[in-house]
Specification:
There is one protein chain. This protein is α+β, with helices and mostly antiparallel strands. It folds into 2 domains: 276 residues, Aminopeptidase, CATH 3.40.630.10; 120 residues, Alpha-Beta Plaits, CATH 3.30.70.360. The protein is built from 14 helices and 19 strands. It has a 6-stranded mixed sheet. The longest helix is centred in the last third of the chain and has 20 residues. The radius of gyration is 23 Å and the shape is globular.
Length: 449
């Protein structure tokens, strides 16, 4: 029996098991349901003969699984995350976010493509290989994270505390990627780093005042507007922000040329990733910025009176903003934070409080590492087309701690459409089952490389 034969013969059961986990809430940011899903996953692992443990952390549990019965010297670490983003406004969903409802072959639910589909796809891939091959081609350790959507704050300590189980891994595979809107799998060769900060300005008056006093009292909103405005331009306006960025114009040109072969026009790229790019940016420049440049982004800003359609004249007493920076290789989040804070102190006169909420390292992997070759080959076999390869993901993730702390190469793969964090997130039945095949083939090819 072949991998695809087993998956198709068991497709109804596999999809229903996926839907059962999809219907369970696991919103890490709001402390909803995460532990229940961890226990559910442990039960699924145990039923496949995978030794498992729910490891408690200060926030949410990490599920650790291990299956070391292969006649091979290779140990593959597979990382996935089972927590999800908050669904947001329920009125934006056509179906309840945790209904796992099937409509016209689409399975709707928060986590359908980010990333319960990939976690369950890996578990079902292990079952497939055990049935088809009689065993796994590699020894396997699974790390299923319940905190990825909040920056994986417990992952570094987890790695340190479980170095005996993880430290001998030869490579890692992140089960957290997508298939683009043209049906081509995406192969990311890295992650950007992240620095996330909160800015808070408070008036000495401590209470909101009549707006007639706006010219003679402090306005914390103006303090943040002026500070954030000083950071924006064609380049981030923080002294020393680019000091450690490594410039390799030849590498950038080669990658952009490859991307243009996959997406010849700006419109084709926008359609593939389902995003509209800035009109004032040329296509090549947009690609360069997306994959090779660090960024500074305002995530949100509040203060004063904001009721839509109503009016109230007020000078606010407090304002708050959240800002994230995506960093490129060789940029240290801690160094960037010190420079950010120094800039805020200089421009804001010490009146703006700066708080670091999160930081993640960047990571790049070589295109010819065995785990990357195995992933590329398995993608082509599963989808019948070469993957679209990217020099890095423009996003960040706590999984970057795995290769940076363990010193091993890491590839990534996934099965769903690029709908992460959006309303009406879904995956098709066929896409889910293809994902099971994909993960099974990656393990098989890595074991034989």
């Amino acid at each position: 029996m072949k991998i695809r034969d087993f998956v198709l013969e068991n497709s109804d059961r596999l999809v229903e098991e996926f839907r059962k986990i999809l219907a369970m809430e696991s919103v890490s940011a709001e402390n909803r349901g995460v532990s229940d899903v961890a226990k559910g996953l442990q039960g699924l692992l145990d039923s496949r003969g995978i030794e498992s443990e729910v490891v408690q952390t200060p926030r949410h549990p990490i599920v650790l699984g291990s299956l070391r019965k292969a006649d091979t010297e290779k140990l593959l670490l597979v990382y996935g995350h089972y927590d999800v983003q908050p669904p947001g406004d329920p009125d934006l969903w056509d179906y309840p976010a945790f209904s796992a409802r099937i409509v016209d072959d689409r399975i709707y639910g928060r986590g359908a493509s980010d990333s319960k589909n990939n976690v369950m796809g890996v578990i079902h891939a292990v079952e497939t290989l055990l049935a088809v091959e009689g065993g796994l081609p590699v020894d396997l350790v699974l790390v299923l994270d319940g905190e990825e959507e909040i920056g994986s704050p417990s992952l570094p300590e987890f790695i340190r505390n479980h170095i005996d189980q993880l430290g001998s891994s030869d490579a890692a595979l992140v089960a957290d990627s997508h298939v683009d809107n043209e049906g081509r799998p995406e192969l990311w060769l890295g992650l950007k780093g992240l620095l996330y900060v909160e800015l808070k300005a408070t008036s000495r008056n401590k209470v909101d005042l009549h707006s007639s006093l706006g010219g003679v009292v402090e306005n914390p909103l103006w303090s943040l507007v002026e500070l954030l405005g000083s950071m924006r331009g064609e380049r981030v306006g923080i002294r020393g922000f680019y000091d450690d960025v490594i410039r390799d114009e030849g590498l950038q040109t080669r990658w952009i040329t490859r991307l243009l072969e996959s997406f010849p026009t700006k419109e084709s790229f926008e359609e593939a990733i389902d995003v509209k790019l800035r009109k004032d940016l040329g296509y090549r420049e947009a690609l360069r910025r997306l994959y090779f440049e660090p960024t500074l982004n305002i995530d949100g800003m509040i203060g004063g009176y904001t009721v839509e359609g109503a009016s109230k004249t007020v000078t606010p007493s407090e304002s708050l903003a959240k800002v994230d920076m995506r960093l490129v290789p060789n940029q240290d989040p801690e160094k960037i934070f010190r420079k950010f804070r120094a800039h805020a102190d200089q421009v804001g006169g010490g009146a703006v409080e700066v708080r670091k909420l999160g930081a993640l390292p960047s990571y790049r992997v070589g295109a010819e590492e065995p785990i990357v070759r195995a992933t590329r080959s398995a993608m082509k076999e599963t989808y019948g087309t070469d993957p679209v390869e990217y020099p890095t993901s423009p996003a960040s993730g706590g999984m970057a701690h795995i290769p940076t702390m363990l010193g091993i190469p890491m590839a990534s793969a996934g099965s769903g459409p690029p709908l992460a964090h959006r309303p009406n997130e879904y995956i098709t039945r066929e896409q889910y089952l293809k994902g099971v095949e994909l993960f099974a083939r990656i393990m098989k090819r890595y074991g034989s490389d």
